[in-house]
């Protein structure tokens, strides 16, 4: 262990990373530099920095990467329509590669020997952090204390923190493991570990529950350009500001609350509750616009791509060549996904209320049930005969074989 002189730690100020600083110093005898990346989690960053130093870090970096997060990680995933197992909007999954990228930058700047993280040996985040580091800095040593130390769980960590006079947010009465950024807030642990338990009232911290949401419909319009939002209710703003506006609107209406038992990459199932108010609205609206603007073959194939893209991101493969290749396909499909979508929000529900696009492939002239001059219904007979020819030949073969 003596070969490690300086470590950059992915630091949040929470329970796990709070105890890692003194643990690294005790067990590796190294200098620890804390790096906290602001992706939209509501923290007192001055206090986080002060706490890192007080816990034993020689230096603390506070990096605001919110705009980069939305523009370079969230928007590409929105364009892909990537949702893991039909529910999870990947809020933690695509945050980890950006954090890892910044850790690598700091480590190179500081001449550090290693990078450490607070992900457990049971979770997905250890894979996401480490695959990103391997892709960006293949010769950097990685330290994962949860895979080394003697602590068996968070209660042991709380006891260690108490012995070292490190204040922590998590307590035995509020034991949730949470991850928050501008895209989502996740909750795991505590009574949520039993899928038979309904979430308690104290779980939701961002969204109103459906019962508390207003008894009136909220209308929202989103303008998209080439697959990404550019305006909300006619107001243009930066990617971060647009997402924050939709977070506020969605949270008030109980939008984006997801309860899922998901398949972790490491082989076990885990139960989590996610709050994705703005994300749920954006993903819904984006899909509505694609219905209008993409042809059948492209839309159906893109659905397959979306599932693979989501799996790659979930598995920590953000910097993989395949994810880059799929992104190139996705970006091509988004060249005509431009227009306006109107939605109605009501007590946790999102309802379509119209969509328009200069690239719309919908033609009322062709699809109308009324009289038209562009579609000869008699043409359908020949189409059906040819399309159904394999079925007819197969049936004739069966008849002949039974004679």
Automatic annotation (TrEMBL):
<feature type="binding site">
    <location>
        <position position="177"/>
    </location>
    <ligand>
        <name>L-citrulline</name>
    </ligand>
</feature>
<dbReference type="GO" id="GO:0000050">
    <property type="term" value="P:urea cycle"/>
</dbReference>
<feature type="binding site">
    <location>
        <begin position="10"/>
        <end position="18"/>
    </location>
    <ligand>
        <name>ATP</name>
    </ligand>
</feature>
<feature type="binding site">
    <location>
        <position position="128"/>
    </location>
    <ligand>
        <name>L-citrulline</name>
    </ligand>
</feature>
<protein>
    <recommendedName>
        <fullName>Argininosuccinate synthase</fullName>
        <ecNumber>6.3.4.5</ecNumber>
    </recommendedName>
</protein>
<dbReference type="GO" id="GO:0000053">
    <property type="term" value="P:argininosuccinate metabolic process"/>
</dbReference>
<keyword id="KW-0055">Arginine biosynthesis</keyword>
<dbReference type="GO" id="GO:0005737">
    <property type="term" value="C:cytoplasm"/>
</dbReference>
<dbReference type="InterPro" id="IPR001518">
    <property type="entry name" value="Arginosuc_synth"/>
</dbReference>
<dbReference type="InterPro" id="IPR018223">
    <property type="entry name" value="Arginosuc_synth_CS"/>
</dbReference>
<dbReference type="GO" id="GO:0004055">
    <property type="term" value="F:argininosuccinate synthase activity"/>
</dbReference>
<keyword id="KW-0067">ATP-binding</keyword>
<keyword id="KW-0547">Nucleotide-binding</keyword>
<comment type="pathway">
    <text>Amino-acid biosynthesis; L-arginine biosynthesis; L-arginine from L-ornithine and carbamoyl phosphate: step 2/3.</text>
</comment>
<dbReference type="InterPro" id="IPR023434">
    <property type="entry name" value="Arginosuc_synth_type_1_subfam"/>
</dbReference>
<comment type="subunit">
    <text>Homotetramer.</text>
</comment>
<feature type="binding site">
    <location>
        <position position="93"/>
    </location>
    <ligand>
        <name>L-citrulline</name>
    </ligand>
</feature>
<dbReference type="GO" id="GO:0005524">
    <property type="term" value="F:ATP binding"/>
</dbReference>
<comment type="similarity">
    <text>Belongs to the argininosuccinate synthase family. Type 1 subfamily.</text>
</comment>
<feature type="binding site">
    <location>
        <position position="262"/>
    </location>
    <ligand>
        <name>L-citrulline</name>
    </ligand>
</feature>
<feature type="domain" description="Arginosuccinate synthase-like N-terminal">
    <location>
        <begin position="6"/>
        <end position="167"/>
    </location>
</feature>
<feature type="binding site">
    <location>
        <position position="124"/>
    </location>
    <ligand>
        <name>L-aspartate</name>
    </ligand>
</feature>
<dbReference type="InterPro" id="IPR048268">
    <property type="entry name" value="Arginosuc_syn_C"/>
</dbReference>
<feature type="binding site">
    <location>
        <position position="88"/>
    </location>
    <ligand>
        <name>L-citrulline</name>
    </ligand>
</feature>
<dbReference type="InterPro" id="IPR048267">
    <property type="entry name" value="Arginosuc_syn_N"/>
</dbReference>
<feature type="binding site">
    <location>
        <position position="125"/>
    </location>
    <ligand>
        <name>L-aspartate</name>
    </ligand>
</feature>
<keyword id="KW-0436">Ligase</keyword>
<feature type="binding site">
    <location>
        <position position="124"/>
    </location>
    <ligand>
        <name>L-citrulline</name>
    </ligand>
</feature>
<dbReference type="InterPro" id="IPR024074">
    <property type="entry name" value="AS_cat/multimer_dom_body"/>
</dbReference>
<feature type="binding site">
    <location>
        <position position="274"/>
    </location>
    <ligand>
        <name>L-citrulline</name>
    </ligand>
</feature>
<dbReference type="Pfam" id="PF00764">
    <property type="entry name" value="Arginosuc_synth"/>
</dbReference>
<feature type="binding site">
    <location>
        <position position="186"/>
    </location>
    <ligand>
        <name>L-citrulline</name>
    </ligand>
</feature>
<keyword id="KW-0028">Amino-acid biosynthesis</keyword>
<keyword id="KW-0963">Cytoplasm</keyword>
<feature type="binding site">
    <location>
        <position position="118"/>
    </location>
    <ligand>
        <name>ATP</name>
    </ligand>
</feature>
<dbReference type="Pfam" id="PF20979">
    <property type="entry name" value="Arginosuc_syn_C"/>
</dbReference>
<feature type="binding site">
    <location>
        <position position="120"/>
    </location>
    <ligand>
        <name>L-aspartate</name>
    </ligand>
</feature>
<feature type="domain" description="Arginosuccinate synthase C-terminal">
    <location>
        <begin position="176"/>
        <end position="393"/>
    </location>
</feature>
<dbReference type="GO" id="GO:0006526">
    <property type="term" value="P:L-arginine biosynthetic process"/>
</dbReference>
<dbReference type="InterPro" id="IPR014729">
    <property type="entry name" value="Rossmann-like_a/b/a_fold"/>
</dbReference>
